[in-house]
Write a structure and sequence with these properties.
By secondary structure, this protein is α+β, with helices and mostly antiparallel strands. The chain has helices spanning 175-180, 249-252, 254-264, 278-288, 361-383, 402-408, 471-477; strands at 4-6, 23-24, 64-66, 70-77, 90-96, 120-124, 138-144, 147-151, 159-161, 168-174, 190-199, 205-208, 212-216, 238-244, 268-272, 297-300, 306-310, 314-316, 322-324, 333-340, 343-351, 388-394, 419-420, 424-425, 447-451, 456-463, 492-498. It is built from 7 helices and 27 strands. A hairpin with a 6-residue loop joins strand 9 (159-161) and strand 10 (168-174).
Length: 499
């Protein structure tokens, strides 16, 4: 197709919101807004909370809960939805892990915190070291013996969902990791209390929650590792893997990537951040994942780092170059039409603009990019109306949710929206596709897969995270726990059958 310069997609309208007020830790009878299955993919243990930002499973009025591995919390901020890790206000969670005012720190304000001995401080958009405004990400501070020490969010296993601006959020802290750090009370039955505090960029308190508390049972002495076998791809179906491979690292360190892809045994791979030419990617795949019969075929475009690789014949689908008005670089999008034994598959690898916050220029660009990709695929599907359709990649949803919904709008074979795949981390009740513990940002779900269920039956979808598999599971799969560190993103796996 000829080059196409797309106009900017207008921002989705938002309903007016009341002014920012006090934080509300929980509301009775609040229903969640997301969609997910009722059971974990691999139910290796019962966890009371699925970490996805949907609070539908929470009992009315419940603010915090626990199991032997985690302390869970949910919260909301009154007023317009904010992007917590890149905001103009600082939200803090102050747990008192042993309900003992003599340990930790006793805040003088707000008054309702006076009975706490805060042992841990988790701050979203924390104050900068020089006091000049707020920083990005999450800062975790351990407080003990009158000393404050900044630690990594990974040191306490903290994560939350969603990464984009939302009405509700939910997060969790690892009891085992926090206990290993010397935080009191989390290794045994007891009560954990705390509250949430909202401050402006000068440190002035804007609001706070009511104190919360949670009763804990004995903590597990072992980490929550999943002892399971990796699911095999379905007979007569297709396995599609989407993976952001961190700026072409397979060329520098092929071992972990080759092991993971060998275990997953994909038919189609949607790559992001692999900047090599198509011929070099194909050569790597043919050396690392040799096929019986025809070699791997790879399609790239002039856009940075996006590629579609296939075991089967492949041809272009959608625009070769897709621009926003005034942009120098093309949108990171590569589409392909793949002739598989199960039928033709329209597949697209995408990588939306990074960074920013809700309503920022970066967020508006993500929405515009999603709209341009949606229109390009709409045009291509009008010419080749293949029923099986998938879009996957790094959506970088660190601002608002509209890029996800604009992308999938009306693209199914029956004219409905593509479905967001229910891809949990295999062996965990969480949706995380990105993790880099030294980074200021905590783990989160940045990558998504969208499938047209009008033309394809989804057998399963999951995220492979070697960090959370048991030693026996890793040995059985032929993986190493360090393979999870190959990239800061984890692969999404979607198994399909034609309808």
């Amino acid at each position: 197709m000829r080059n196409h310069r797309a106009p900017r997609y207008p921002r989705a309208p938002f309903a007016p919101a009341p002014p920012l007020a006090a934080i509300l830790a929980a509301l009775a009878g609040c229903a969640g807004s997301g969609q997910r299955s009722s059971e974990p993919l691999i139910p290796t243990r019962i966890q009371p909370v699925v970490l996805d930002g949907d609070v539908g499973e929470w009992a009315p009025g419940l603010v915090a809960t626990a199991d032997p591995w985690w302390i869970y919390m949910r919260w909301k901020v009154a007023g317009e939805a904010h992007t917590l890790q890149s905001d103009s206000e600082n939200l803090s969670i102050w747990p008192d892990t042993d309900t003992n005012p003599s340990t930790g720190e006793r805040p003088s304000t707000p008054p309702r915190a006076a009975q706490l001995g805060v042992d841990l401080q988790i701050e979203f958009s924390p104050p900068k070291a020089d006091g000049a405004g707020l920083d990005r990400g999450v800062r975790v501070t351990k407080i003990a013996d009158g000393q404050r020490r900044t630690i990594s969010h990974g040191d306490v296993g903290f994560s939350f969902a969603p990464t984009y601006a939302s009405e509700w959020y939910e997060g969790r802290i690892s009891r085992q990791r926090a206990s290993d750090l010397g935080l009191p009370g989390l290794d045994r039955p007891g009560i954990v209390t705390g509250l949430l505090v909202l401050r402006d960029s000068t440190g002035r308190i804007l609001g706070s929650s009511e104190p919360f508390e949670v009763n804990t049972t004995a903590a597990s002495q072992t980490p929550p590792l999943a002892d399971l076998r990796l699911p095999r791809k379905p007979e007569g179906g297709l396995r599609v893997v989407s993976w952001n491979v961190l700026k072409g690292k397979p060329m520098e360190d092929p071992g972990p990537f080759a092991r993971v892809l060998h275990v997953l045994d994909p038919d189609v791979i949607l790559f992001q951040e692999w900047t090599s030419p198509a011929s070099e990617i194909a050569a790597w795949l043919n050396a690392s994942l040799p096929l019986d019969g025809s070699p791997w075929e790879v399609r790239t475009t002039t856009a940075w780092g996006v590629a579609v690789a296939s075991r089967f014949p492949i041809e272009p689908f959608g625009h070769e170059e897709l621009y926003l008005d005034g942009a120098e670089d093309p949108i990171r999008f590569a589409g392909a039409l793949i002739d598989t034994p199960a039928g033709h598959l329209a597949a697209a690898s995408i990588h939306l603009k990074c960074c920013g916050s809700s309503g920022s220029p970066e967020d508006e660009q993500r929405i515009s990019e999603a709209g341009a990709i949606n229109r390009s695929l709409t045009e291509a599907l009008a010419i080749e109306p293949v029923p099986m359709r998938i879009i996957a990649g790094d959506f970088n949803l660190v601002g608002s949710r509209p890029p996800l919904d604009v992308m999938r709008n009306g693209l199914d074979a029956d004219g409905s929206d593509l479905e967001i795949m229910d891809a949990r981390d295999l062996g965990d009740a969480a949706y995380m596709t990105w993790q880099d513990d030294p980074n200021a940002f905590s783990p989160g779900r940045l990558d998504y897969a969208l499938v047209g269920e009008g033309g394809a039956k989804v057998v399963r979808a999951f995220v492979l995270n070697a960090r959370i598999l048991s030693d026996r599971a890793l040995d059985a799969a032929g993986l190493d726990r360090a393979d999870a560190e190959a990239s800061d993103h984890m692969p999404i796996v979607v198994d399909l059958r034609p309808k």
